[in-house]
Amino acid sequence: MAPTSTTTAGSPRPGVGLPVVPPDLNAKRRPGETVIKALLTLSALTSVAITFGIVFAVLAPAVDFFKEVPFTDFFATSDEPGAVSAAVLPLVVGTLITTVVALALAVPMGLGAAIYLSEYASPRARKWLKPTVELLAGVPSVVYGFFALFFVTPVVLQGWLGLDVNFTNSWAAGLVLGVMIIPTIASLSEDALSAVPHALRQGSLALGANRMQTTIRVVLPAALSGIAAAVVLGLSRAVGETMIVTMAGGSVKNMSLDPSEPHMTMTAFIATTAKGENPVGSVEYNALFAVAALLFVITFVINMVSIAIVRRFRQEY
């Protein structure tokens, strides 16, 4: 029986054109390519070395701290009278409250801005609206702190809304913190929405769905991994922000869940305590690194959760 040939009239003969075996890109190197590769490798290794250096610089004094202070005192709800200010749970509560308030404002506003810029804005409007939103990320955090102290608390919270809040409170700190991270969530989410292929939108519209149904049921699920990464990145920025919470959040260790009261966050504790008054190697000095190490662990866990979410919902087109 004669072998069946798949070659049709007019098609190239087998073996003609590109070779079947992939070309060996390492066979020939251009002049200077080795130097460029070495510089890139050095840059990557330097970043890794700096990361390990930061971890070591934080962990070494933290270990010395826990040699003198038991874990029960560190994870206590209040400081013992006359003892080292080591209770970290009130700081975690303060950080949690301001972060939740910030995300409650930033996620809907940032995601709404991203949907408008990606799905509804004209190219001309998008051209100047997106850079305008991103300008908020360039405002110094100390300016946000003054904005919270002298406008949000007295004018918005006490004046317009009539809330009975303290001069420093977690409402003002969280709201202004949310304003600060809106550009992060909006910009990254808009990039994720814009990366969804237009064929999906056209297919949905061809089936009779309107623009809103297409956005909610097709585009948003397709861009969910990018949106999740944007929210988690904004969350990490909110947890690590220092100046706003130091100025507007207060400096009181407080286990109350009422945002109208002042709360000290972990970053505010580090900023207010690290003034150079504590001798190097003292328990008070090492307490700063213990809190910093816990903050590092929290942000590390947040980033790991973010990576898991992105991998779980990632869709490739």
From TrEMBL:
Region annotation (Disordered) ranges: 1-23
Ranges for domain ABC transmembrane type-1: 92-306
Compartments, as annotated in UniProt: Cell membrane; Membrane
Main location: membrane
Keyword Transmembrane helix set for record: yes
Residues that span the membrane, as ranges: 38-63, 83-116, 128-151, 171-193, 214-235, 287-310
Pfam families in alphabetical order: BPD_transp_1 (PF00528)
Biased composition range(s): Low complexity: 10-19
Keywords from the named record: Cell membrane, Membrane, Phosphate transport, Transmembrane, Transmembrane helix, Transport
Coiled-coil annotated residue ranges, if any: none
InterPro entries: MetI-like, MetI-like_sf, Phosphate_PstC
Membrane topology: Multi-pass membrane protein
Function, in words: Part of the binding-protein-dependent transport system for phosphate; probably responsible for the translocation of the substrate across the membrane.
Family as reported in the entry's similarity comment: Belongs to the binding-protein-dependent transport system permease family. CysTW subfamily.
Protein name: Phosphate transport system permease protein
Organism: Nocardioides yefusunii
Originating gene: pstC
